């Protein structure tokens, strides 16, 4: 089993509810168990400011999946929940980003771990520190 940290964010359609829905779906990923959840933090958008504030949370999971399988499971959840990728850093119903995956360092076209921007984002660092 590998411990992974995942950042969740939403700013559309009752964001707190969307985080709860994402948590439910994540808890249903085979061989994956949520082991810790931060509190929910309200933050200003990183990109365009003409959008609602975000609700952000970080969770820890233990998983038997490899990093790419976890990524694909999270992307399937985003798609199931109706995520549309139109504007970079734009509004979204849900965003699920792998921050860390054990001690692995991964740099592929579709996945970079540790997340390359997490150390610049208080909306990730504060909830991550909360569960560490």
Question: What can you see in these coordinates?
Answer:
This protein is α+β, with helices and mostly antiparallel strands and 132 residues long. The chain has one domain (2-131): 7,8-Dihydro-6-hydroxymethylpterin-pyrophosphokinase HPPK (Alpha-Beta Plaits, 2-Layer Sandwich). 28% of the residues lie in helices and 30% in strands. Strands 1, 2, 3, 4 and 5 form a five-stranded antiparallel beta sheet that branches. A two-stranded antiparallel sheet has the order 6-7. Strand 6 and strand 7 (112-113) form a beta hairpin.
Radius of gyration: 14 Å
Estimated structural class: alpha+beta
Quick one: how many beta strands? 7
Helical residue percent band: 25-40%
Tally of discrete structural domains: 1
* Strand percent estimate: 25-35%
- How does the major sheet shape up? 5 strands, antiparallel
Provide a compact summary of the structure:
This protein is of the alpha+beta class and 132 residues long. It has helices at 15-27, 67-80, 122-131; strands at residues 2-10, 32-37, 41-43, 54-63, 95-101, 106-107, 112-113.
Helix and strand topology:
Layout: E1 2-10, H1 15-27, E2 32-37, E3 41-43, E4 54-63, H2 67-80, E5 95-101, E6 106-107, E7 112-113, H3 122-131
Antiparallel strand pairs: 1-4, 1-5, 2-4, 3-4, 6-7
């Amino acid at each position: 089993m590998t411990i992974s940290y995942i950042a969740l964010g939403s700013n559309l359609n009752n964001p707190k509810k969307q985080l709860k829905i994402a948590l439910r779906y994540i808890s249903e990923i085979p061989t994956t168990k949520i082991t810790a959840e931060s509190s929910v933090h309200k933050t200003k958008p990183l990109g365009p400011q003409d959008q609602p504030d975000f609700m952000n949370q970080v969770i820890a999971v233990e998983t038997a999946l490899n990093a790419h399988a976890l990524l694909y499971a999270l992307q399937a959840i985003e798609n199931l929940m109706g995520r549309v990728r139109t504007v970079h850093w734009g509004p979204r119903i849900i965003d699920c980003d792998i921050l860390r995956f054990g001690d692995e360092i991964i740099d592929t076209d579709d996945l970079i771990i540790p997340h390359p921007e997490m150390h610049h984002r208080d909306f990730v660092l504060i909830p991550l520190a909360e569960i560490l």
